[in-house]
Amino acid sequence: LVSVARTPRLIGSVVVSARRSFFKRLVALVLGAGLIWLVLVERIEEGQLEGSRFHTRSLAALDSALNSALPTDAELLEAGGARVEIAPPVDWNVPLGGNRRLRFARAEGKRPESVWARAIAVRQAGRAFVLVSADVMVIYPQFGAAVLDRIRREVPIDAHQLMLVAAQTHSGPGGYWEGTLAEISLGPYQQRLFDFLVERLAQAAIGAWRDLQPATAAF
Q1: Calpha distance 137→81 (Å, rounded)
Q2: Share of the chain above pLDDT 90, in %
Q3: Has this prediction a pTM greater than 0.85?
Q4: Which of 133, 121, 117, 119 is nearest to 212 (CA)?
């Protein structure tokens, strides 16, 4: 009697399970067919880009920007560069950026990886710009603001005159971004590491600014 009574429920369960399996397979089939169509059938040809409105307007904008940036004989162009190593001390036990389970320092007591902040400064006719590229995972707003504040103690630039770029390397130091989600990737936060990296990136920018000298631009 128990077996007979439970049979309809079992049959109903099997039917529902079969329907779900069918719909999953159908969805997978449709997605797979769409992917195959995009890869094998709908090829993107270069000819579809050339002559298009987007292509024409983009080239015009580039020409305008380059022509307006060309120096004249009366406007002296100055440029400078600098590089500062940003490898933290070995005994700080810094996590590796992008893989918190590993330490930044190499094994067997070897010195840390060589990671750098590289900067270039350009000045002409009262306009100036500083670009800093750092071997770190990410530049986030609070970090960038701290670097700018440190630079401005010695260099008269505003926020729109500074660009900070992260190399997005997974071989650089982590632990410089506070917060649960950030520490999942970059490892436990260390205030001294934050301050250390801010100072090093700022020193690269300041060094490039102090290195300004007559230069020639070409493209």
Answers
A1: 22
A2: 42
A3: no
A4: 121
User: CA angle at residue 136 from 130 to 139, to 5 degrees?
Assistant: 60
| More reliable by pLDDT, 181 or 18 | 181
Q: Whose structure tokens read 């890869």?
A: 39
Structure tokens at 27: 């969805």
Would you put residue 208 in left (φ > 0), alpha (ψ -120 to 50) or beta? alpha
d(CA 102, CA 93): 10
d(CA 28, CA 49): 32
Distance, CA of 158 to chain centre: 22
Torsion, Cα of 43, 44, 46, 47 (10° steps): 80
How far apart (Å, rounded) are the C-alpha atoms in residues 91 and 99?
A: 18
Q: Which residues of 26-44 are buried (b: 16+ CB within 10 A; e: fewer)?
A: eeeeeeeeeeeeeeeeeee
The torsion angles phi and psi of 49, rounded to 5 degrees, stand at -85, -45
| More confident of the two residues 74 and 130 | 130
The CA–CA distances, whole Å, from 31 to 27, 28, 34, 61, 96 equal 6, 5, 5, 38, 38
Residue type, 162: L
Q: Token pair of 164, please?
A: 């900070």
- State residue 7's pLDDT score: 55
Q: Write down the pLDDT at residue 11.
A: 60
Region 16-21: what's the mean pLDDT? 70
> Averaged over 67-76, what is the pLDDT?
66
10 Å CB burial of residue 169 (0-12, 13-18, 19+) is middle
